[in-house]
Each structure stands twice: as C-alpha cells, then as structure tokens.
Specification:
This protein is of the alpha/beta class. It has nine helices and six strands, in the order βαααααβαβαβαββα. It has a six-stranded parallel β-sheet with strand order 3-2-1-4-5-6, sandwiched between helices. Helix 1 crosses helix 4. The protein binds 6-O-phosphono-alpha-D-glucopyranose (G6P) and magnesium ion.
C-alpha cells in the first residue's frame, strides 16, 4: 500500500454512494399529504443522515401534527413500505458517478473498506446496486444503538476492520455524519457543499474525477 493511503475507508451510503434522498422524499411527502400538509424538498434536507423515527418527528413538526406512539409506528412502517417499493427497483446505474472506480482502486491498493450508514435498508440497496463485494464490513441501522452524530457506527466499523480510528477516512454527506466522524477521531471528507459541511477536513462535490492519489494527503 502507498504510504499516504489510510488503512481503511468508511463510506456513508445515502448521498455518498447512491442518491436515495429522492426516494425518501417521495415517500415522506406522500405520507405528509395523507396527513393533510405539504412537504417540500427543502424540508427533506433536514432528514439527511437522520434515523427513520427522528425523520418522522421532523416531518410531523413541519406539519404541526401530533401522533400517539402507536400511530407513529404505523406511519413510519407505511413510509418504509413505500420507500422499499422504490429502492427494490434500483439498478447499478444509480451508483453515483466515480464511486465504483474509487472503490475499485481502494481494493486494488489493499485499503480496507467499510460501510457506515443509519439505514436499515442498507443490505437491500447494496445488493440492488451490486456493490456488496467491495465491502469488507457493513455497519448499518440494524446494528447500532446510537444514531449519528454519535460516533458508534464509525467506531464499530473500525473495530470490525481491526484498524485504529486515526487510520480511517470517512466519506459523509450529512452534517450529523461529519460530526460523528470527528467524534470518532477519523479524517472526514465531506461530499457536497462546504457551507453545510464546515466541520469536515476536506470537502469534494462528488467522486467524479477523484482518485485516491489525488485525495489522500
Ligand atoms: C440515512 C438517510 C436518512 C434516513 C436514514 C434511515 O441516514 O440519509 O435520510 O432516514 O438513513 O433510513 P432507513 O432506510 O432505515 O429508513
Ligand atoms: Mg448520507
């Protein structure tokens, strides 16, 4: 392995590897409309990187709606069924530009690769997009107790890879995820806008045209 390369890279899923935010948006909007209010793309921004039940709370806050715990579970299940109906049709074409080449180069360079996502639908998305073989370890919303910005998801990834946190790079598109990486003591590359991802060590727009040689310092 080249000396400037980290021992491991940990990738967030939604917004880093695939653009599933549009499907989350369609599903949450349908549920909001059913409850009688509008839900905009701007509102949807607040749900990025946030767990399913916390997303529901934000969505209900937008509509000024209060539900009982039982009703909340019913609405969250309904949202997820709708969301799953979209993602079960995903194809490898939906992998964001440059991501697969980047993963390929890491693999060829013997850098360990983990996935660290809040999504309980991670296994389905990875299998629909054909990306399962790239990951040595997958940590998702089914395995962690504390959601980002808690560092649990990334620390578990490093532990399972048997690599110290300080030798890991994290790739994240959400502010909560950048904070989680910082708290884990990992180097964080933000994917998206530098204004939103202020706490990242470095920010790139996406992986298109980005190679590990260009990125690792
Ligand atoms: C990711 C997404 C969030 C989503 C969360 C849970 O972090 O960025 O928007 O709410 O995963 O996803 P799930 O598939 O478990 O509902
Ligand atoms: Mg994300």
């Amino acid at each position: 392995m080249k000396s400037n390369y980290p021992l491991a890279c940990i990738f967030d899923l939604d917004g880093v590897i695939v653009d599933t935010a549009k499907y989350h948006f369609l599903a949450w909007r349908a549920l909001a409309n059913e409850l009688g209010f509008e839900f905009t793309e701007e509102d949807n921004e607040r749900l990025k990187g946030v767990s399913r039940m916390r997303s529901l709370d934000i969505m209900l806050e937008v509509g000024n709606v209060t539900l009982s715990e039982d009703e909340k579970i019913r609405v969250a299940d309904k949202k997820n069924n709708l969301y799953v109906s979209y993602i079960e049709k995903m194809t490898p074409d939906e992998i964001l530009p440059g991501v697969e080449d980047f993963l390929k180069t890491l693999k060829e360079s013997d850098v360990k690769i983990a996935l660290g996502s809040a999504s309980k639908n991670t296994p389905l998305i990875l299998s629909r997009t054909g990306l399962v073989p790239y990951f040595d370890v997958v940590v998702d919303g089914n395995m962690v107790e504390k959601a980002k910005p808690d560092p649990e998801v990334f620390l578990m990834g490093a532990k399972l890879l048997n690599v110290p946190p300080s030798s890991c790079y994290v790739f994240e598109d959400a502010a909560a995820g950048v904070e989680a990486a910082n708290r884990a003591g990992m180097y964080c590359v933000g994917i998206g806008s530098p204004e939103i991802l202020k706490q990242a060590n470095k920010v790139i727009a996406g992986f298109d045209g980005i190679t590990p040689d260009k990125l690792f310092i």
